[in-house]
Amino acid sequence: MSRRGGGPVMVLNVAEKLSVAKSCREGENTAFEVVDVCRAVDVCRAVKHNLYIRRSHFSALIDSSKSQREEPSQLFVRVVDARQEIDLRIGASFTRFQTMLLKDRFSIDSTGDKERSRVISYGPCQFPTLGLIVERYWEIQAHEPEEFWTINCSHESEDGLATKAENKYVMFYNLFIGFFSLIC
User: Fold this and answer.
1) Domain of 19?
2) Which GO terms describe its molecular function (predicted)?
3) 81 and 62, same structural domain?
4) From first to last of its 184 residues, what are the pLDDT tens digits of the chain?
5) Do 101 and 49 fall within a single domain?
6) Strand blocks (E) in the chain
7) How many domains does the chain fold into?
8) What is the pTM of this model?
9) Is 2 a domain residue?
10) Are 123 and 170 part of one and the same domain?
11) Which residues contact residue 45 at a Cβ distance below 8 angstroms, ignoring those fewer than 6 apart?
């Protein structure tokens, strides 16, 4: 991290300001973990002074948000910590419930590990993630190829023939090709 050597801790020993950028509550939580490490290093400095810490919230909707720096918010961190705790407890409860309910009805042993195959896991993030995967699979299955063109240019001069082929992944559709043929 540092050209002078010593890694990130060496950089923190000489740093006076820390700017943390985040885009959501989860990012705020991660930012606080970074801040905790930085403050621990700050306490251990030979020359005592407080590290100036600010955070920016990035937003695609509000361009000026990146220039507005404020103190990191412990409230966002508490919200994320509470959600993680709830997810963990719900996941453990549902895993236990569905394992007990379904263990005798299904033979699930794809790993070969008998102990592991006896648990039917549940996690609050698994269903939305599975939904995204299934939805994308359906989109791929329903895809119908469309006609497309590519543009290849060549120029012949005394020096020889020069060709320029567009990237093979760039596709041009009817409207663009029609417009292009009118202006040429």
Assistant:
1) 7-72
2) DNA binding; DNA topoisomerase type I (single strand cut, ATP-independent) activity
3) no
4) 434 444 555 555 666 777 777 777 787 888 788 777 777 765 555 444 566 777 776 666 666 655 677 777 788 889 889 988 998 999 899 889 988 888 778 766 556 666 556 787 888 777 788 889 999 999 999 999 887 776 677 778 888 777 765 555 555 555 565 666 666 5
5) no
6) 17-22, 52-57, 69-70, 152-157, 160-165
7) 3
8) 0.49
9) no
10) no
11) 13
